[in-house]
Amino acid sequence: PKALRPLPYPVPSNRVDLLRGYLNIEPEHWPMLAAWVVAALNARGPYPILVLAGEQGTAKSTTMRVLKSLIDPSAAALRGQPNEVRDLMIGASNSWLMAFDNVSVVHPDVSDALCTISTGGGYAKRALFTDDGELLIDVTRPVALNGIGDVVTRPDLMDRCILIIPPLIPDSQRRDETAFWQAFEQDRPLILGAFLTALSVALRELPNVKLQQLPRMADFAKLAVAAETALKTDGALTFLEAYQVNRDEATEAVIESSPLGDKLRDLVLINGSWEGTATQLLAALNEKATDSERRAKNWPAAPNRLKTPLQRLAPSLRKVGVGVEYDRKRESSKIVLTRLSDSEWRN
Questions:
Q1: In whole angstroms, how far apart are CA 26 and each of 107, 159, 186, 198?
Q2: Which of 60, 111, 244, 259 is at 20 to 30 A from 90, Cα to Cα?
Q3: How sure is the predictor about 329, in pLDDT bands with cuts at 50, 70 and 90?
């Protein structure tokens, strides 16, 4: 592609820690981000989606430019918010790392397409100016995006994400941009060499990795554990420890960003269980919601519109101790919400 720029010739190195000096992240997020870089350099996915969510002044865009320059240099390092699935898929077919800057909201159809790009899948649409021609794209790509606030709200997309919240940078610690990029260009061959070495270690050790429990994005998790000896830094959490904490934080973010999530959790955790029809459940939720919440576009306007958001939320609710089941044995189908024991929801 015309926008493609060359990678530096990698210098053999074990200095993966050099990258940390160019990223504004907390120490506990380093194991996940380092693993994400290794995965993004691998020719085979699936690839988790990196999400940087934080306030202005946390160097989110700079962090993404660094990662893009390291993995997939391009004349246009960062893209604008994706709004059309077709444009998203064409962009994925013409680049390796998709990096989206200042995303405010991910539209539902784009969210589904990002899930497809992350774990693999095809896209087909009638080719322009034809009657029977098809545009066929089948890609699996690493993706990174940033924004302020709750950028990702749909549970199925968040389940594929690594969520990182960068800390605010004090004015006294800000760096001159010209000097920053000059230093990075000097270190880039060493950093690339170190991460390619980590990837080679991961590919060598991958057949020996046996996890007691497979988390979401299991192939990525296994690759990350296989690379751990090449990525480990003093005092850092292990990858699986950091990943579990991040999964919990992502689940909480999904629940809090959903207009239904907190209400459903409160309904069960206060009473221990709840059972009733969709009509009764919507009435109970309406009682707990404010006027502005009930008027929101994503609030179900009728009982028959409650099923889909409830099914989307069910995996996240289960991770915070709320079970969702459907009892269809009686004359009227009922929804059963139960408070799960610690052993049930933690496993």
A1: 29, 21, 24, 21
A2: 60
A3: low
